[in-house]
Amino acid sequence: MKSNYKPLVLEIISYLFVFLFIYASISKLLEFQNFQAQLGQSPLISAYTGFVSYAVLIIELGIAFLLVIPKTRYIALVASFTLMVMFTVYIIVILNYASFIPCSCGGILDNLHWKEHLIFNLIFTFLAALAILIIANNKLKISLKLLTITVISSTFIVMLYFFSEESMHQENPFIRRFIQGTSNKIAEVELDNNSKYFAGSEGSTIYLGDTQAPLHIIAYDSTLKIKKHYKIELEREDFPFRSVQVKIAPPYFYLMDGTVPVIYKGNMADWKAKLWMYNNNYYFSKAEIIAPNKIVFRAQEIKTLNNILGTFLLKDSLEVKYAPNLLEKQIDGFFDTDGVLNVDRQNQKVIYTYYYRNQYSIADKNLKLIHRKNTIDTTTKAKLKIAHIKETGQRKIASLPATVNQITSVDNNLLFVNSKIMGRYEPKEMWKQASIVDIYNIEKGTYLSSIYIYDVDNAKINAMHVSNDILYAIIGNQLHKYKLNNINKVSKK
Predict the structure, then answer these.
(1) Residue where one domain finishes, among candidates 135, 170, 205
(2) What CATH number is associated with residue 446?
(3) Same-domain status, 152 and 232
(4) 358 assigned to some structural domain
(5) What is the pLDDT of residues 132-143, one digit of tens each?
(6) Are residues 360 and 421 in the same domain?
(7) Are 379 and 358 in contact (CB under 8 A)?
(8) Which domain holds residue 146?
(9) Is the Cβ–Cβ distance between 239 and 199 less than 8 Å?
(10) C-alpha 36 chain-centroid distance
């Protein structure tokens, strides 16, 4: 290339970068909330979204300004080369090592696929290097300098990836990840009322109970089109039932009412229930089946009226054991420890998720604590105001509490939590049309990702059940079935 062409080439390359950075910056500024949301989904920089979103804008605009000044053009071109190397390595890591590929972001690059994006960056990286070599007197020295910049910039991006992933999974700064294709709705069916609840599942069959018809069970097949109706026959019916729940743990089913208290057990082959526990004072408010002869329950301590977890074990006689230290009191021991009780029968674990704080506890089948972990929001203490009525000695909630975790389901070391708290960089519009379900690996105590469950006629999800890679949701008067994809892949991270 003749030397008289060099100034023209240098000028063209410089103004190409000026146009690129200004256009990209303005595009980001015009849709800054969307830009931050996209960065929040990146597996490399999710944990640093706030800083990076502002830093990229400032750096791009700063480089563009320095490029139009002849005296600072060399420094600006080196900065451009460094930035383009970082962007290029970022894409290489995304495409080859990340657990998922997020949406791209940034002006004209929004319209490019990731591989096209990579080629675009490689071209501009080459142009920046060419412009620097045009200016340089010592080509060998500058070439070594560019190689050093490439190595350092690449190492920085790789380290950023590992640190960000660790932070997102272990110490999440309340940034949710919505991985494309994680869940797909594959079936839905209209229910005849809104009093249905999930009683359990077996393979591809889902069983629904009905609070208005406590002895009736509806079973749907994998397509949600074929359903069967079963009616439970009780050995004895002369109890003052008030809160009947049916729990299915194939091949058995259990009919329970903790206000009596009474528990029946039967075989799904004939749906005939025999008394399993009755005529005692072991009242309970929640119960789950962890083994054919063992039930985990929540009750109130007689003296303090605080919530407590325990187990019913039926061998030759009924054995009752309590775990007085498993639920942690913050305010009153009753309202502040309210939550959802789940069991992971595959792994013989008990999971208790609090309604009003960002905590869940995992215990073994004997209620021995394994560990306590946190959901990704920042509500560490329940925000409750408790009123004590002297005349009756009762405790009541004085104001509407801020619910953190509402509906949960557990399946094979995965905890699914319907969260009620909006995370950072999330569009408010989505909260108006969908519910958020966060997914955690309870074995590792890590956050994995989140999914949307869309409303139906302004009704939000009111019950959820997960079995293998299927999530069932009752929304208003409808039952929806979602296929979960890539959860196992993400959970290995």
Answers:
(1) 170
(2) 2.120.10.30
(3) no
(4) yes
(5) 999 988 889 999
(6) yes
(7) yes
(8) 3-170
(9) no
(10) 19
Q: How many CA atoms lie within 13 A of 276 on its CB side?
A: 24
**∠231-346-216 over CA atoms, to 5°?**
10
Q: Which residue type occupies 357?
A: R
Q: Could you tell me the CA-to-CA distances from 33 to 25, 130, 436 in Å, in that order?
A: 13, 35, 19
Q: Which pairs with CB-CB distance under 8 Å and at least 24 residues apart come from 144-152? A: 146/81, 149/78, 149/81, 149/82, 149/85, 150/85
Strands (E), 12-84: none
156 & 217 share domain: no
Taking only the tens place, the pLDDT of each residue in 192-234 is 999 999 999 999 999 999 999 999 999 999 999 888 999 999 9
User: Which residue matches tokens 């080629």?
Assistant: 119
Tell me: do 355 and 483 sit in the same domain.
yes
CA separation for the pair 441, 413 (Å, rounded): 6
Higher pLDDT, 176 or 268: 268
Q: At 79, is the secondary structure helix, strand, or coil?
A: helix
d(CA 89, CA 154): 6
Q: What's the sign of the alpha-carbon dihedral 114, 170, 341, 419?
A: negative
Percent of the chain at pLDDT > 90 equals 63
- Whole-angstrom Cα distance, residue 383 to residue 400? 9
The span from the CA of 45 to the CA of 33, in Å, is: 16
Phi, psi values for residue 154, rounded to 5°: -65, -45
Do the strands 307-314 and 294-300 form a parallel or antiparallel pair, or are they unpaired?
antiparallel
Q: Residue 132's CB: how many other CB atoms inside 10 A?
A: 23
Torsion sign across C-alpha atoms 170, 176, 180, 181: positive
